[in-house]
Write a structure and sequence with these properties.
Length: 275
C-alpha cells in the first residue's frame, strides 16, 4: 500500500508492506533505490524517486512524492498523438539508462514458459473463440521453436515496467516501484511498457507485426540503444498480448468494465498483428 503523506509544507510517499519485516522486501527495495539514486546522479532527464527514510523494522519506507502524471495517465487519456509519442520516447530513454546499471550479458532465449501458458489458456477457451485463435497460437508455437536458444541480452531489469511505474515530470522521467527488480532479458521490460499502446487508435497499416503502433515503437527506440534481438522482442510482445487476451476470455473469468474494454482492444490489435 502506498499513501500520500502531508507534513507541513512537504509531501511524501509512504510505502507499507506488513509482510516486509519477515520477507525483507522493503529493505531490499530501499537499498536498491539508494544505489539507483547514485547511478542516476547528475542525469538531467532520467531519475528514480529519492529514498528518504526506512523504519527500523522494515515495515515501511518514505520517498519523495512527485505530483506529476504517470505514463499511463497520458497514454490512456491524451488526445494528442504527438504528446503520447514523446512519452514513449522518454520511456525508452529512461529504460536505456536503467539497463546500464550493470553490464549486459548474453543469454539464450527460453520461450517455453510463455508457450506453456498460452497453450494452457487456449485449452479452456469456448469453442467459438478457440477456432478464431487457433492460427495465432500455432504461429506463436512455430516462432517459439525457431527462436529457442537464440542469443539475446540479459540486464538488470525493473521487472514491472508498466506505465504506472514511470512518472512524466517537467523535463525528467522518474521511475518507481522496484520490488520486482532482477536480472532478466532486456526485452521483457520493453514488452511491459509497449503493451500499453493497445489503448491508442490506429489503422491496420499503422500497426507492425508485434501488434504495436509503428510510430510509438519507433519513438521508444529513438533513445533506447542496447542491442536487443528484434525478432525475440516482437515474438514476446505478440505472446504477451495473446496471453492477456486469452486470460480475459476464460469462461470463469468475470471482467470488470476496464478489463472488458482491454479485452476488446487486445482483440483488435491481435487481428492486426496476425493479419
Amino acid at each position: 500500500m502506498v499513501l500520500k503523506v502531508q507534513s507541513g509544507t512537504r509531501t511524501y510517499a509512504l510505502k507499507i508492506d506488513t509482510e516486509s519485516p519477515a520477507s525483507g522486501r522493503l529493505n531490499d527495495e530501499f537499498d536498491l533505490l539508494t544505489k539507483l539514486s547514485t547511478h542516476f546522479d547528475g542525469n538531467k532527464t532520467s531519475q528514480v524517486v529519492h529514498p528518504i527514510y526506512i523504519s527500523p523494522g522494515g515495515a515501511f519506507f518514505v520517498t519523495e512524492f512527485i505530483d506529476r502524471p504517470t505514463a499511463v495517465d497520458l497514454i490512456y487519456n491524451s488526445k494528442d498523438d504527438d504528446q503520447v509519442a514523446q512519452v514513449f520516447r522518454r520511456a525508452g530513454s529512461w529504460l536505456n539508462d536503467l539497463h546500464r546499471f550493470r553490464p549486459a550479458e548474453d543469454y539464450a532465449f527460453r520461450p517455453k514458459w510463455m508457450t506453456d501458458s498460452v497453450q494452457d489458456l487456449f485449452q479452456s477457451l469456448p469453442l467459438e473463440l478457440a477456432e478464431e485463435s487457433q492460427r495465432m497460437v500455432n504461429t506463436m508455437l512455430a516462432e517459439a521453436e525457431r527462436l529457442k536458444g537464440v542469443s539475446d541480452i540479459r540486464v538488470f531489469s525493473h521487472g514491472d515496467f508498466h506505465g504506472l511505474n514511470l512518472i512524466v515530470g517537467q523535463g525528467q522521467t522518474i521511475g518507481l516501484d522496484f520490488t520486482e527488480a532482477r536480472d532478466k532479458l532486456a526485452v521483457y521490460d520493453i514488452v511491459d511498457f509497449l503493451k500499453s499502446d493497445i489503448f491508442r487508435d490506429g489503422a491496420g497499416a499503422d500497426v507492425d507485426r508485434s501488434g504495436i503502433l509503428k510510430r510509438n515503437k519507433e519513438m521508444f527506440f529513438r533513445l533506447y540503444r542496447h542491442p536487443i534481438n528484434i525478432e525475440i522482442l516482437d515474438f514476446c510482445i505478440r505472446g504477451r498480448l495473446l496471453k492477456d487476451w486469452l486470460r480475459l476470455c476464460q469462461p470463469d473469468h468475470k471482467c470488470s468494465d476496464f478489463e472488458d474494454h482491454m479485452r476488446t482492444r487486445l482483440g483488435i490489435r491481435l487481428k492486426q498483428a496476425f493479419r
